[in-house]
Fold this protein.
Amino acid sequence: MEKFTATAVAHPNIAFIKYWGIKDHEITIPANGSISMNLAGLESKTTVEFLAEQQSDQLTLNGKNITEIGLERVSKILDFVRLAGKINFAAKVISENNFPTGSGIASSASGFAALALASSVAAGLNLETNSLSSLARLSSGSASRSIPGGFVEWIQGEDHKSSYSKSIAPPDHWKLADCIAIVNQKHKPIGSLAGHQLANTSPLQTARIQDTERRLDICRQAILNKDFIALAEIMEIDSNMMHGVMMSSSPSLFYWDPPTLEIMRSVAEWRNNGLPVAYTIDAGPNVHVICNQENMKTVSDQLKEIPGVINVLSATPGGPAKIIN
Ligand code: PMV
């Protein structure tokens, strides 16, 4: 029996400059570039087995059999790998996350990054980081940022090869932490895939896109210079701009719950009182509160006191996607 298999782990990432809107849906060319930090401690572990006797691709995610769109997104990456590796077997894919799926913590990013790496290695391909990042991008844009390690920039690009992510600083460059305030564990009603398609219906999206280079420059410099206040200000503005686009789309998308706003207000107050903290929110109600590692416990404890906060997960900057055995 012929069998090609590999297991990979990848971390989710939190974007400081968000990607929202897609220029080319077929190959996920984003409407703008973005910058993120990988999250150590949170991970997706994905095993891919190409099997001669397997009839069609099969996906098990956190113990559940997944069909339709979820499976189609997996097969998109597998098809690319089969073509490049000259394999015509279907695959069995088993993926597990050690954090809640579908609630504003990018499980699709870590899941598809781990899938891209595991499937390419199982097929005998030896892809460079850039090519792996482009491959992961096919099924989830933000997955391209979970391939390299540390602080990462996704270059918008214009075709499959030129749209990829690269590391701008390693994980140990800056001792930051992400305290993730969980206010709702349910799967979000409108996933990011559907949300991206509504971005252009907002009149604010054009202005947001036009201003992206400025925000990317400020964020990149803030990371390189470890300038917390500069990072805090640009990160919050960028998150607010994305949610402004979401709220003014047709139909409008409101991802926040009442505690989300309460946390945003508290974070602003804590920063005014001298604690270096900043918030950013993805397509969900949970709030990522970025701080220095030395303040991780204080921030986490303060967040837990806010009514509506169910739990706080903490993460420090994470490394690249990697193969495990
Ligand atoms: O990669 P997707 O399709 O899950 O989209 C991610 C979109 C945001 O998380 C809202 C922003 C980002 O850049 O991560």
In short: The pocket of PMV is lined by residues 15, 18-20, 34, 106, 108-109, 140-142, 192-193, 282-283 (CB under 6 Å).
